[in-house]
Fold each of these.
Amino acid sequence: MIPIASNWIITLIFAALPISEVRGAIPLAIGVYGFSAVDAYLLAVLGNLLPVIPLLLFLEPISDYLMRYPAGNRFFTWLFSRTRRKYIQDRENFSMIALAIFVAIPLPMTGAWTGCAIAFLIGMKFRNALIAIASGVLVAGAIVTTTVMSIKLLAF
């Protein structure tokens, strides 16, 4: 049997991963490890927020570094112009609320990792991006926890 502390760490790591995030960590914590809804929620939210600050801080310096090379310059020039042309130009009012709602939707490709990429691409300020993404993660965690607990009650 894996000790409880290891289960916490596994849940935190699972929540920090870009594919699973809270959508995978909460069902894991409740369904596999038997955590309470509150413990699962708190661990998953904390784990999902762990990579947010480094991502928000380092996406720009990494892209700047990669733009020194021809392939990186072509890619980021294409990405930035395409993103601004297709999404931002028509939606200048893309705000913290819109980003928070996007992150809060517990579907694939809508979590904190993608929220960080969007915030970077649209040039959102660090503080605003952090608040919007954290708010979205809190809501997504609540939605997933409620869904998992409802299924658990219905199934058992």
Note: Residues 4-155 form one domain.
Amino acid sequence: MTTAGERAATVHALAEQQMREIVRQAEAGYPEEICGIVIGKPGRPETYQVHQVKNVANQHLQKDTTGNDRDARTAYFMDGLEMLGIEKKADEAGLEFVMFYHSHPDHDAYFSAMDRDRALSPSGEPLWPGANYLVVSVRGGRARDWLLRPLDLFRRLLFISGPRARARDARRYVWDDTRQDFVEVAATLPGHGR
């Protein structure tokens, strides 16, 4: 039997086709942030279902922690009715929310203060215990890692291209009960050989 803390630190690995769908949504939604929810049975990726949720940040303008206005270009706000529909579907099928995801257009993939605040209750506990949070960086309409890895640099110096020369960039965050905060864990998006 696992404790609530152990369950909260579970990393939910997505199958490649699920990651490809999130990347497709992120690129299609550029230059605005996209957002969504993955439902399924924790630890069973074959049950995971990716559901994009309408970003209504343009209708619900927000201020970030520094007081700057944020719209759909720099923030997301999930449509509440769509979230309720996904929650109902999950409940009826005996599934759970295993991951929330969103994109960062023309910015790095990171868990911002606003993202963290949105994931926590007023008491500082996760709103969705056990759920992971995935952030995908999209630059110029494409999700990619803009840092050159040693092998990528070697390929470019030799004028060799390959599917890994443009690796996807994403970061995943899980709640750590010991730290009482979200921590980053490895996330790999599929290479599309573009």
Note: Residues 1-8, 145-167 have pLDDT under 50 and may be disordered.
Amino acid sequence: MKKIIYAFFCLFFVSSTYASSQYLEDTLQMINDGKTDQAIETIKKNLEENKSADNYVLMGIAYLEKNDAKNAEENFKKALLLDKKTVSAHYMLAMLYEKEKKYEQSIEKWKKICKYTKNEKLKNLAVKHLEQLKGITK
């Protein structure tokens, strides 16, 4: 799952639109390299100065890598409190809820992705998940 999260995040969210894209890439690389505790400390320090949705999403990803779904979910939700249109937080929650078989919550997040994303590939992915989940919840 680690490689999937890293690849997804790099493809859809780390771009020149982020002023701190190098920080995001470096922190994701730490997580990908198994240096999760180091990444968490880096993110905590950054959060002291920059309580951004991106930082909370990164923290959530780090906690997922530690198999701590509760703290991951909490951080993704904090990101959404700062910015309800944070597609990466909706995506991570959608995947987490699917894994936990919380299908109604997952459907809600995939719908938010369709609403907020401008990325057609991501929108198509969300639609596919919605179709599959609707089949499960019937």
Note: Residues 2-137 form a domain with the Serine Threonine Protein Phosphatase 5, Tetratricopeptide repeat fold (CATH 1.25.40.10).
